[in-house]
């Protein structure tokens, strides 16, 4: 969503010769942050080729749907993202419960997460989920 919104606002700003009020940067930073969430969890999960293909297909469908939604009504598109981010927070809360109960092993954090979020070298998956959940709360509030 951040990439689509940032791209469309960038084009609108160029067409109208007006500033975006900083929104382009905010949305593109959100897109980069979401990319890092995906890259981190792909490092943890080690998906097979068909799971990667599923991510690719869903990305293509969602990108086009969100593009059309954003063109029609940016306000509604942002509201939808806020809702999705709230749902992500609930999912991460459940993930943390599963980690705490031992149903999911609390493995060491991948290097990509330690570098991106500047976590301690001995960080675990739980630490990663905590910072990702905080990111999602920020995205919810922005949208």
From TrEMBL:
**Any idea which UniProt keywords this protein has?**
Electron transport, Iron, Membrane, Metal-binding, Oxidoreductase, Respiratory chain, Transmembrane, Transmembrane helix, Transport
Task: Output the superkingdom of the source species.
Answer: Eukaryota
Subcellular localization is given as: Mitochondrion inner membrane
The record describes its membrane topology as: Multi-pass membrane protein
Q: What is its EC number?
A: 1.10.3.11
Tell whether Hydrolase is among the UniProt keywords.
Answer: no
Give the main localization category: mitochondrion
Q: Which reaction does it catalyse?
A: 2 a ubiquinol + O2 = 2 a ubiquinone + 2 H2O
Which cofactor does the UniProt annotation name? Fe cation
Entry's cofactor comment: Binds 2 iron ions per subunit.
Q: Which GO terms describe its molecular function?
A: alternative oxidase activity; metal ion binding; superoxide-generating NADPH oxidase activity; ubiquinol:oxygen oxidoreductase activity
Assembly and oligomerization? Homodimer; disulfide-linked.
Output this protein's name.
Ubiquinol oxidase
Can you name the source organism? Answer: Vitis vinifera (Grape)
The organism that produces this protein has a lineage beginning with:
Eukaryota, Viridiplantae, Streptophyta, Embryophyta, Tracheophyta
């Amino acid at each position: 969503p951040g990439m689509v919104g940032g791209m469309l606002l960038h084009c609108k700003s160029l067409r109208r010769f007006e500033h975006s009020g900083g929104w382009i940067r905010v949305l593109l930073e959100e897109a980069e942050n979401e990319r890092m969430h995906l890259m981190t969890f792909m490092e943890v999960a080690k998906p097979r080729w068909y799971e990667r293909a599923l991510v690719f297909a869903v990305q293509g469908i969602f990108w086009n749907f969100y593009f059309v939604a954003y063109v029609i009504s940016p306000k509604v598109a942002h509201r939808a993202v806020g809702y999705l981010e709230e749902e992500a927070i609930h999912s991460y809360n459940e993930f943390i419960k599963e980690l705490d109960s031992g149903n999911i092993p609390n493995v060491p954090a991948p290097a990509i997460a330690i570098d991106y979020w500047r976590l301690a070298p001995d960080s675990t998956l739980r630490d990663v989920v905590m910072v990702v959940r905080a990111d999602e709360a920020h995205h919810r509030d922005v949208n």
